[in-house]
TrEMBL record:
Catalyses which reaction(s): [E2 ubiquitin-conjugating enzyme]-S-ubiquitinyl-L-cysteine + [acceptor protein]-L-lysine = [E2 ubiquitin-conjugating enzyme]-L-cysteine + [acceptor protein]-N(6)-ubiquitinyl-L-lysine
UniProt GO MF annotations: nucleic acid binding; RNA-DNA hybrid ribonuclease activity; ubiquitin protein ligase activity; zinc ion binding
Coiled coil stretches, renumbered: none
Pathway participation: Protein modification; protein ubiquitination
UniProt cross-references to Pfam families, sorted A to Z: IBR, RVT_3
Enzyme class, first EC level, given as a word: transferase
Protein name: RBR-type E3 ubiquitin transferase
PANTHER family: RBR FAMILY RING FINGER AND IBR DOMAIN-CONTAINING (PTHR11685)
Keywords in alphabetical order: Metal-binding, Repeat, Transferase, Ubl conjugation pathway, Zinc, Zinc-finger
Species name: Arabidopsis suecica (Swedish thale-cress)
EC number: 2.3.2.31
InterPro entries named in the record: E3_UB_ligase_RBR (IPR031127), IBR_dom (IPR002867), RNaseH_domain (IPR002156), TRIAD_supradom (IPR044066)
Amino acid sequence: MVAESASASNIFADSLVYRLFFKGLVSDETTTDMEEIVKAGFGIAICDEANTLLYNMKKLLNGDDVINPEEVEIKALICVLNVSIQMELRNVMICCGDYQIFQILTGRGKPQPNIVHLVEQVQHLRGKLSSTEVVLVPRADVIILAIEAIGGETCCICRENTDADRMFFTDNCFHRQCFSCVNRHVQRMLLCGISPTCLHFPCNSELTFESCSKVLTPNLIEFWKRKIEEDLVPAADKIYCPYRRCSMLMSKTALSRETNQSNVRACVKCCRLFCIDCKVPSHSGLSCADYKKLNPEPLYDVKLKSLANKKKWRQCVQCSNLVELFEGCNHITCRYIYIASN
């Protein structure tokens, strides 16, 4: 689709520098019949110095005619340069989102033999303009142009055909999956206590909260925020509110003494008092030892310890988590190095 744009020379001031954005994309997909297909396309945009959009275009290419992503990228640049010349622009800034292409355009890199003729065409078109400064911009600023040009994509995880605006791309590797798959993946990873990574095997690019928040459910966003806060507290400094309807995570060092008793603290969420030494509700007037005698461990704690002994689980000496030796030597890492006993 091409947006209507005026091309009269008196519309565009000679002193202004216009920004040219371009991005090409090649996507390998598998149909429901397990047929491999290639989709390619590019998008271009021209903006003024105030980032007002003056022109944009998206074009779907024949995948059979496309050899590699660099070729599509250069074709997108050729297209936006041609449009700039037709609009009689004089000074342009070429905003490039691909580092390799940026190196080629600035003379620091050598083009592959199969795109030499395209690069020569680019340089010829640049010569028709008064100035063509090349700047490197984040890929995230331009890749949406190409994704929209291709249109619907097949999610590599669920194999469902999805609209381009419902596809998520990872900041670092730019692998693409549908919003639903990303949402389920992040939820599973967080529930396992693992930082979410790219779904594309074997890529391990980290998924950031900022980039994922637009595709996650409100409950999952809140859950991830809590995990980020938990990760900021050192394992040895973590303490949870002993009241079951609260269980707020807190930092021992950040808690202030609430009474003249050195071991009494108040939960930052429910404000109820508890003993920081034995991690139970406040037992004013009783020592920790006396309280334990009068209040034996609940049945579920006894059952858990019995199960841990049966399964030969061990408790981390620093964070108190139960850990299991699955395979390998007797060294177990649970935030701290712990040597499991036989």
